[in-house]
Every structure is written in C-alpha cells, then in structure tokens.
Design brief:
There is one protein chain. The protein is α/β, with parallel strands linked by helices and 452 residues long. It has helices at 27-33, 42-72, 83-91, 95-113, 152-165, 186-194, 205-214, 237-246, 271-282, 297-313, 317-325, 337-347, 359-363, 380-385, 421-437, 441-448; strands at 17-19, 120-125, 128-136, 139-143, 169-174, 200-202, 230-232, 251-252, 260-265, 289-294, 330-333, 349-355, 369-374, 411-419. The strands form 3 sheets. The protein has a 6-stranded parallel sheet with strand order 1-11-10-9-12-13, sandwiched between helices. A 5-stranded parallel sheet has the order 6-5-4-7-8, sandwiched between helices. A 3-stranded antiparallel sheet has the order 2-3-14. A hairpin with a 2-residue loop joins strand 2 and strand 3. Helix 2 (42-72) crosses helix 8, helix 3 (83-91) packs across helix 6 and helix 5 runs parallel beside helix 6.
Length: 452
C-alpha cells in the first residue's frame, strides 16, 4: 500500500519527454512506448493478494482482524459499521459538503436513470417470440478507497447506478481509519447514510474484495458477510489485482486501479489549464499517471514551466512531484493531430481531456478512453464530482475493452425463448439437419419426439 510524505517537495520536476515525431509506429509499438508505470506490476502483487484471499477464505473474521491490525493499525472485533455511527456521521457533516454531495447525487441519478436499456421482444414468425430482458443482479459489493484520500464521491459513483439498476441488496466497504476509531472516514459514512446504505464494512484493500466475492461466515451465529454477485469500485494495485483474481467467481466492473489522465492538446491550449489538470490527478497517488500528448513543442515547454510553478504551491506537493516525475508520466511529442489521436487510442486513458481547436470533432474520433472531457470547461475534476458521469473507470489501457461503471454493470441480459407447436415444427427439419452435421443426434431426437 503506497504512502508518501507531503512535508517537502523536490527542488525540480523531472517530467520526462517521449518524442514520436518523424516515427511511424505500429499500434503495438505505440502501446509499448507510451509512458506506463514500471513500478510494481499486477504480477508482483499477485502472490500477496492470493495470500490475502486464502487467509480470508480459511480464517474469516480472524484474518480480517489481523489484516486490519497489520495494514491499518486498528483493532477490530467485527468490521460491520454500527447504524448509530452512520447516523452520527451524517448529522456531523459540514453543511456545504452535504449540499455538494446532494448535488452530485442528483446529477448522477439523472444520468443513471436514462442508461437502463429497454427489454426487447422479437416475433420471428407466428408463435415464435424471442425476448431479451434486463434483470438486475441480486447483491453487489461496492468498494470505496480511503487511504491517501477519503473518496466520498466514490460512494455516489458506486451506489447510484446500482440503485438505478434495481439492485435490492447493496453492501459497501472502505478501509478502517486509525484516526476515526477504526471506522471508515466519516464523510464516506455520511455519503452512505445519505444514500440509504446501511450495510457498511470497515475493510480495506484486497481483503474487502475477497470478503465480497466469497462471503465470510460467522460461526458464532452473528453477522456474516454474504457473498455478492458483482464487485465494483476503484482502488490501488492490490484492489485491482484482487478484482482480476476473483473475476469469474463474481462479476466486476473493470480493473480500476491507480488514476491516470491524458491530455491531447495543440498550440491553442492554455498551459496553465493543462498543468492544473495534470496536477489534479497526480495529487491522488505517487503512482498516478499524468500524460500530455501534443504536436506543439512550445506548448509542452510552457506546460512544464507551469507544472513547476503550480506543483510547488499545491498542498500535496511531494506526492505530486513524485507522480509527475515517475515513468508513468510525461509529455509525448507528435508530428500532428493525426498521430496524437493514434497515441491516445493506443494509450486508452482512464480520463482523456481534449484541449484542441475543434475539440468536439477531435473527441468524436477517440475510440479508447474511460471518459472523454471536451474543451476548457470540462476538466476531469468536474467528472470526479458533479458532471453526472461516473468516475469509476478502467485504467492501465483496459479502456480499450472495458467500460466505465454504469447501470448495465449491475444488469444481466436474459434471453427468453417462447415457441408454440407450429413455430417449432416450421424449423424442426433445420434443427435435425444441423444436429446431424454436428454429430449430436440427441438434439434432433429432442425435437422429433414432439411430433410423433
């Protein structure tokens, strides 16, 4: 689990540069050459996570208590957050923070409620109807990070689409905090209470994912943690690795790991805005990725100067400097916008900002991104809190095949086949022929017997 001190900042910023100008790179070469984290990979974390999962499965609450002691420095008898603690957190929340949460909830609900797809009935012939019905999963486990930053907004991002989907059983986990008596951060508890979530657990990291995936029985007849059907939520590399390892036992949204931002910008972009947005994600974590893709060397130089100035003044200066100086961050210089778009599609950023002339037209050409932010007035910070969109998004290039968290994450498409006798008879010969071609005569016999 990554931590860092913010007490002092390095003297200078090492925001590295990768120059693709004059090079014709294939998709594979682009994917290999863009800035990526070369620190601890999921393969490195995998054995640690496997050990955690095995401990939770074999020793249940005893293992959870041990892990809370080792990772979080708290003593824990049972991780369930008492109802009175949820109520107290909501009563004590700053009124301005409550108002902001309520606005974020309102916008997220409006967007989520429009996402649910409609059921489909198709009459293929008289008496032959095939339907697709969208049905919510029965129970979900939602993970909310609480390490370097207590992400109360992630409570909203997880809960709102699950409720909009019609999920009836919702559990939430967030790391226990030593400063708050072993409970999750009170703002996280207040957000959960505001949304009507009363099943909340003080469990962090891979152990939370394991608890949701496999359940934790209580041999004393107390409060077991029942297994879920789907696990969602962002987290660090251990959370993302755990989600990958339990996929198949449960559904997951995506491997939403350490945050990343890419900005595609041309000479029309404002350096101060570009720098501020890169910093906004770098302050999440020392391993956060901040990447600028541009065809303007002048803009790149101006952005680096702005990064030096703004990073020195920001609260989490050391954390930001470490993130911006890491191998996962930097500027990619390209020949032109065409090559810039190709780089962005190869990188498949969690968050991609478009700061170019004709930004909307450029955004329409992006195929791979968790979320796309168009123009000067759609920063990633807007999406983190109040855009109405969801900020739980795929990272590490997985946006090339994964979607951000949305209502369909919590739905299953169930097909219903309803044929009457004459409709089956109409295709019976085709079924028998195909069954014979596949050397599965029992399939054909199951149809023929109905007409003997």
């Amino acid at each position: 689990m990554t931590t860092s001190s913010d007490t002092s900042a390095p003297a200078s910023l090492d925001f590295r540069s990768v120059d693709f100008r004059g090079r014709h790179l294939s998709l594979a070469e682009l994917r290999a050459a863009v800035p990526r984290a070369k620190h601890q990979t999921m393969a490195d974390a995998e054995q640690k996570v496997l050990d955690i999962i095995a401990a939770v499965r074999s020793r249940g609450f005893a293992a959870l208590a041990e892990l809370a002691r080792n990772f979080d420095g708290v003593e824990q008898s049972h991780p369930r957050v008492p109802a009175e603690a949820l109520a107290t957190a909501l009563e004590g929340i700053d009124p301005e923070v409550r108002a902001a949460l309520e606005e974020s909830i309102s916008r997220a609900k409006q967007f989520a409620e429009k996402q649910r797809p409609g059921n489909v009935d198709v009459a293929l012939a008289d008496g032959a109807v095939v339907s697709q019905n969208w049905i919510p999963v029965g129970r979900v486990g939602l993970y909310v990070p609480g390490g370097l930053a207590p992400l109360a907004s992630s409570v909203i991002m997880n809960v709102v689409p699950a409720v909009a989907a019609g999920v009836e059983s919702i559990a939430l986990a967030s790391p226990p905090q030593k400063d708050f008596g072993g409970l999750p951060h009170p703002t996280i508890l207040a957000a959960a209470s505001l949304l009507g979530i009363d099943e909340v657990y003080a469990i962090g990291g891979a152990q939370a994912i394991a608890s949701f995936a496999y359940g934790v029985p209580d041999p004393d007849g107390g409060l077991p943690i029942e297994p879920v059907d789907v696990v969602t939520g962002p987290g660090n590399i251990f959370v993302a690795t755990a989600k990958r390892l339990v996929k198949g036992v449960v559904g997951i949204d995506s491997e939403a790991g350490t945050t990343e931002i890419a900005i595609l910008a041309d000479a029309t972009a404002k350096p101060a805005l570009v720098a501020a947005d890169l910093i906004s994600q770098a302050e999440h974590d020392p391993k956060a990725a901040s990447v600028l893709v541009t065809d303007s060397a002048e803009l790149a130089a101006a952005v680096v100067r702005e990064l030096e100035r703004q990073a020195a003044a920001t609260k989490h200066s050391a954390r930001v400097h470490e993130a911006l100086s890491g191998p996962q961050s930097g500027v990619v210089l390209v020949d032109d916008l065409e090559q810039g778009i190709a780089v962005c599609n190869a990188y498949a950023a969690e968050h991609l900002e478009i700061m170019t002339a004709n930004a909307s037209a450029v955004a329409a050409r992006i195929r791979n991104a968790g979320a796309i932010f168009v123009g000067d007035y759609s920063p990633v910070s807007l999406g983190d809190y109040c855009a109405g969109s969801n900020h739980v998004l795929p990272t590490s290039g997985t946006a090339a095949f994964s979607s951000g968290l949305n209502v369909t994450t919590f739905l299953r498409a169930v097909q219903v086949i309803n044929y009457d006798r004459s409709a089956l008879e109409q295709v019976s010969g085709h079924i028998v022929s195909l069954a014979g071609a596949e050397d599965l005569p029992g399939h054909g016999d199951a149809v023929k017997i109905r007409f003997q």
